[in-house]
Design goal:
- With about 600 residues, the chain is of the alpha/beta class.
- Among the domains are: about 170 residues, Rossmann fold (3-Layer(aba) Sandwich), CATH 3.40.50.300; about 80 residues, Helix Hairpins (Orthogonal Bundle).
- The chain is about 40% helix and about 20% strand.
Length: about 600
C-alpha cells in the first residue's frame, strides 16, 4: 500500500515581477497551477533552466515565501531542512556559531561529528572562511538537524572531490526524502530515483532518476512539436526554437565526443612509457614545434611543504588539459605556474610567442545591474566581433541560449545563472588561442553546460580547466593532471574517470617519477562489418570529413554576410551567398544525423 505524502502543494500559483512564474488562476494567464506531492524516501532531482524558479520552489516547500494561491500541507512532525546555495554568515562570529542556529537547533556533538568527517574546523572565523569551508559548515548544520525532508540547492558547489564523495555516501544511506538542484550530472545520476522538471511554468514528475531525464525531455519536446505541426501552429513552433536547439546541440555533442575519444587515444600514445610526465611524438622536433606551453622540472613549496614536486610537461596547441584534486592540493598553484602568473621555485616555463589567453575564473566580476545586455556584448551597438568574425548581437545571444528579445534588458533583471552565461558569451567572443577556465560550471544550468562543452570542443586553441565537475571533465578534456595532495602530479590521457581508474589500479613496485605513465583511454569501438551495409561503412568513414568541410563553408559564408554594406552594394551576391549558407546548414544537419544513426548501430 502506498504511503501518504509527507508534504503536498496543491493548486500552487506564484507571481514574480508582474508575471505568473507558476500557473495563473485563470486560463490563458499562465501555465496550469502546480500540484506537488513528496513521498517518504523520495530522491528527487529538480531540473529547469536558470530563471525557471527552481530555488523559488524550494523556498515555497520550506514555507519561506508565501504563494499567491494554492494550499500547502505537511505531515505533522515532519522536519524540513533547507541547504541554501549561498547562506548568510554575516551575523555569526565562527562557523560553529552559524551551525548551532539552524531552524531545528542541532546538538554541538552532532555538528562536530559531521564536521570532523568533512575535515572542517568549526572554530574558523566566519567572515574570513573560504567558499569551501562555508559550504562544509552549511552541510554540517543541515545534516546534524536530522531532517525528514532535505532541500539541497547546488550542494556540491565549492566542494572538492573527496567532500563530494563523502556527501554522496551519506545521502545513499540517508533514510529521509530529499530534493536537489544541481548542475553536477554525476551526482544526480548516482543519487536520484525520480525527476521533477520545471519548464515554462509547469512542473512535471517522472519516476526515473536523472539518468533518464534527457531522453524524457527530448520525448516531450518531440511530442509538442508534432502536436504543433498538426495544428499548423507556426508561431508556437517559433516559440520553441530554444528547446529544439538544445536537442540538436545534444546530438551534435555526441558526435564531438567521438572526436574527443580519438584525440585521447592519440595523446595516450604520446605519453612516455618511462613514467615521466613529458609528452612526446615519434618526431620530437615536430612535437616541440607544435608546443605552446613547455614546463621543465617545475616545482613549488610553501612553508617547507612541497605543493608541486618536480614536474615536466609539454602542452600542444589544441590540447584540453583538466586539473583535478582536493582543495589545497595545489590545483590553482599549478594553473598559475603554467600561465606564468606565478614563478616556480625550480625549473622553467616557456610559452610560444603567439600565445594569447582569456581567463574565466570562479570569482567572476559582478556586472553593473543598470547596464544592458547590448552594452555588455556590443558596447551598445548592433554588431559584435566574435573571434575575428562580425556577428549581429541578437544572433550571438541566440547561440548562448538567450531569447534575442533580451538584448536591451538590464543585467539586474537576469538570474545569477543568466549573468554567468552572459559573461561566458562576452569572454568567448575575444580573440585568443589559450582559454583558462577556473571552476567554470558553478551557477550554470544543464543546458548551458551542454553549450559550454560545445564551445570548448569548437575552440581552435588550447584549454586549461580546473574543475570538480566529473561529468564535465569526462566530456571535454584530453589530458588530466591529477594532484593527490602529496605534491605528485599524475598525467593521464583522458578525463576524470580515467584518472580515478588509474588511482584505484594497484601499482607493483615503487613509482619511478612524480608523474607515472598514463593509462590510455580506449579508442571508440570500430564498426562491426556484419552490422553495416557497404554504404553505412563508407558513410561512417567519410562523413566526419564532409561535416568539417561544410562547417568551414558555413563559417566562410557567415563571415561574408557579416559585412553590413554587402546587401546595399551587391544584393544579388548577398542573396546567392544566403541561399548557399542555408543549403550548407541543411546538408550539415543531414550529415550529422546520418553519422549519428550509423554510430548507434556501431555502439549497439
Amino acid at each position: 500500500m502506498a504511503q501518504p505524502p509527507i508534504l503536498s502543494w496543491e493548486g500552487l500559483g506564484l507571481q514574480q515581477g508582474g508575471r505568473w512564474l507558476f500557473g495563473g488562476p485563470q486560463p490563458g494567464e499562465g501555465a496550469e497551477p502546480i500540484d506537488l506531492h513528496i513521498l517518504p524516501g523520495d530522491r528527487l532531482a529538480l531540473i529547469g533552466r536558470n530563471g525557471a524558479g527552481k530555488t523559488t520552489l524550494l523556498k515555497l516547500i520550506d514555507d519561506r515565501i508565501e504563494a499567491d494561491r494554492g494550499q500547502r500541507r505537511v505531515k505533522p512532525g515532519t522536519r524540513i531542512v533547507f541547504l541554501e546555495q549561498e547562506p548568510d554568515f554575516s551575523a555569526f562570529d565562527t562557523l560553529m556559531d552559524f551551525a548551532l542556529h539552524g531552524d531545528h537547533a542541532p546538538a554541538t556533538h552532532e555538528v562536530e561529528a559531521i564536521a570532523g568527517q568533512l575535515g572542517i574546523d568549526m572554530s574558523t572565523d566566519a567572515a574570513t572562511a573560504s567558499g569551501g569551508e562555508r559550504r562544509r559548515a552549511a552541510i554540517a548544520r543541515a545534516l546534524a538537524q536530522d531532517p525528514d525532508l532535505l532541500l539541497l540547492d547546488e550542494p556540491t558547489n565549492h566542494l572538492d572531490l573527496s567532500a563530494i564523495d563523502w556527501l554522496e555516501d551519506w545521502l545513499t544511506r540517508y533514510k529521509g526524502a530529499f530534493i536537489t538542484i544541481s548542475h553536477d550530472r554525476t551526482f544526480l545520476k548516482r543519487l536520484t530515483r525520480a525527476t521533477l522538471w520545471l519548464d515554462r511554468g509547469t512542473l512535471r514528475r517522472k519516476e526515473v532518476g536523472f539518468g533518464g531525464y534527457e531522453a524524457w525531455e527530448e520525448q516531450v519536446y518531440a511530442e509538442e512539436a508534432r502536436a504543433a505541426e498538426k495544428l499548423d501552429a507556426k508561431l508556437k513552433l517559433e516559440a520553441h526554437w530554444l528547446e529544439r536547439g538544445v536537442t540538436a546541440r545534444r546530438k551534435r555533442n555526441q558526435g564531438r565526443l567521438e572526436k574527443l575519444y580519438q584525440m585521447r587515444a592519440a595523446r595516450a600514445a604520446m605519453i612516455s612509457d618511462s613514467g615521466a610526465a613529458k609528452l612526446k611524438l615519434g618526431n620530437d622536433e615536430e612535437f616541440k614545434s607544435k608546443s605552446v606551453i613547455v614546463a621543465e622540472g617545475i616545482s613549488k613549496s610553501y612553508d617547507g611543504r612541497a605543493v608541486i614536486k618536480p614536474f615536466t610537461l609539454r602542452i600542444q596547441n589544441g590540447d584540453r588539459i583538466g586539473i583535478v584534486g582536493a582543495n589545497g592540493a595545489g590545483k590553482t598553484t599549478l594553473l598559475k605556474m603554467l600561465t606564468k602568473e606565478l614563478e616556480p621555485d625550480t625549473g622553467t616555463i616557456t610559452h610560444a610567442r603567439t600565445l594569447s589567453g582569456v581567463m574565466i575564473d570562479q570569482q567572476r566580476k559582478l556586472l553593473e545591474p543598470d547596464v544592458t545586455v547590448r552594452q555588455i556584448l556590443a558596447e551598445g551597438g548592433d554588431w559584435i566581433d566574435v573571434r575575428g568574425t562580425r556577428k549581429h548581437v541578437q544572433a550571438y545571444l541566440k547561440d548562448f541560449l538567450f531569447d534575442p528579445k533580451l538584448v536591451d534588458t538590464k543585467v539586474g533583471i537576469l538570474s545569477g545563472g543568466e549573468r554567468s552565461r552572459l559573461l561566458l558569451a562576452r569572454e568567448f567572443a575575444r580573440t585568443a588561442n589559450l582559454l583558462v577556465l577556473d571552476e567554470p560550471t558553478n551557477d550554470l544550468d544543464l543546458e548551458t553546460l551542454d553549450l559550454l562543452q560545445e564551445v570548448i570542443a569548437d575552440f581552435e586553441g588550447t584549454v586549461l580547466i580546473v574543475s570538480h565537475d566529473r561529468d564535465f571533465l569526462d566530456k571535454t578534456v584530453t589530458i588530466t593532471l591529477g594532484l593527490d595532495g602529496t605534491g605528485r602530479v599524475d598525467v593521464v590521457a583522458g578525463g576524470y574517470a580515467d584518472w580515478e581508474a588509474k588511482r584505484r589500479k594497484p601499482v607493483a613496485g615503487k613509482a619511478k617519477s612524480c608523474a607515472p605513465s598514463a593509462a590510455p583511454t580506449p579508442a571508440p569501438p570500430p564498426p562491426k562489418s556484419d552490422k553495416l551495409s557497404y554504404k553505412d561503412q563508407r558513410d561512417y568513414e567519410q562523413l566526419p570529413a564532409r561535416i568539417e568541410e561544410l562547417e568551414a563553408a558555413i563559417a566562410k559564408a557567415e563571415g561574408i554576410l557579416a559585412d553590413p554594406d554587402l546587401f546595399a552594394s551587391d544584393p544579388q551576391r548577398f542573396a546567392t551567398i544566403s541561399k548557399g549558407l542555408e543549403n550548407a546548414r541543411r546538408q550539415k544537419d543531414e550529415a550529422e544525423e546520418r553519422w549519428l544513426d550509423i554510430a548507434e548501430k556501431v555502439e549497439g
